[in-house]
Input
Amino acid sequence: MTTEPSKAPPLYPKTHLLAASGIAALLSLALLVFPSSDVEAKRTTLSLELDSPAEQLTQDQDTADAAQATTEVSASPFAQIESSDQDASQTAQAAPAPVVTEEKAAPNHREVVVAKGDTLSTLFAKVGLPTTAVHEVLASGKQAKQFTQLKHGQKLEFELGADGQLNNLHSKISDLESITLTKGANGYAFNRITAKPTVRSAYVHGVINSSLSQSAARAGLSHKLTMDMASVFGYDVDFAQDIRQGDEFDVIYEQKVVNGKTVGTGPILSARFTNRGKTYTAVRYTNKQGSSSYYTADGNSMRKAFIRTPVDFARISSRFSMGRKHPILNKIRAHKGVDYAAPRGTPIKAAGDGKVLLAGRRGGYGNTVIIQHGNAYRTLYGHMQGFAKGVKTGGNVKQGQVIGYIGTTGLSTGPHLHYEFQVNGVHVDPLGQKLPMADPIAKAERGRFLQQSQPLMARMDQEKATMLASSKR
Ligand SMILES: [Zn+2]
Output
């Protein structure tokens, strides 16, 4: 393992995240993206009857394309306040809803709730402030304009002076944030207050009876945590094909709470997944250097030394074989690698940490990257369109780092990656290769690790027992 000289020391978590994010992206497709069409319905349910891996792989490309097409358009925060005349009149008619609520505490305190069609001007008017007050507020500074980004249901609180002038304007814009304008000698001063959530741990347990995503949602696990769980176990469990009815999971994760309300989640602290009768455990551990990774309960790394596939969303167009007809040379030749077809420009990732032996042209391979991993392993990536920035002969790369992009340079019939894997100089099938394990917990940190992992494991046992007992009653 080598480190890039240009970067700060703890590089491992990043590496891990990159690898995990690739898996998460794939799973996100497999799990949730397509509730509608037939083909994908099969994938959505991570179905119990998928048995052809080849068929699966060929579907991936379509799926990836479709995923791009279904990118969500997030709602503009301005959408609510763009008031057409029609909107305004509707609000007027449908308005038994009292927009102005008198507060008992102070007579000069007013609250309004943003309704459809409201603008800052209409809200000011509702509390009896003149249009000039709106201008004054907005002219007070750039940040004050945040008060124009109104959301339906948002509450604005006004403090008025004895003269009826605005002294203070306050609004909570999220569970964590509120903004305030306070009148002072030099006009209005803007202030943003961010609440710091308290962090606690939460537990869920689920049994799969239809799909992972449905079962996880029913158990109360968010989409994000479901993806996290899938990537934590992604090296051991094939979530696209191996999930079965009756599979179970337990998860302890961080929950962020403000005023008793959950406002977000943090990482999974520990998890257990039983797949077809075999139970896998995972514990998050942050070492003394500050880098976090997942380990089995006994301290072995969950991360394997190599990622399975150097290209996400690719289709295998040619497998490893000792004899096939070469498409261009038209002769029987060994194909000592795996071809992944994907659109031109698709990123290619380093399968593991290593030293770049070559980033350049290499005959029929076209633009090629060769990486040496430790002593025994070497990977080769051919036909690239180009190399990623900073990837050069003699340099180092981290696992999951983008090293180049799919192309069709050299002897190639179309955009694809030609990927080779060598062990001690011998070509092996990367799909057949049993992936070597990454390093376990360092001996010096083993005690510290167990101090953290044992209580988490015990808690999962206890919580699960309690839960099952109460559901039987
Ligand atoms: Zn090839």
About this structure: The chain has three domains: 104-194, 197-304+439-473, 315-428. The chain is about 25% helix and 30% strand. Residues 446-472 form the longest helix (27 residues). Residues 1-104 have pLDDT under 50 and may be disordered.
